[in-house]
Amino acid sequence: KNILKTLVVTTVLALSMTTIHAADTNVSFDGDAEDFIFLDGSQDLFDNFKNIMPGEVRTQNIVLKNDDHRELRFYLSADVLDSLDTDTSGLS
Question: Which residues are CB-contacts of 88 (< 8 A; sequence separation ≥ 6)?
Answer without folding.
Answer: none
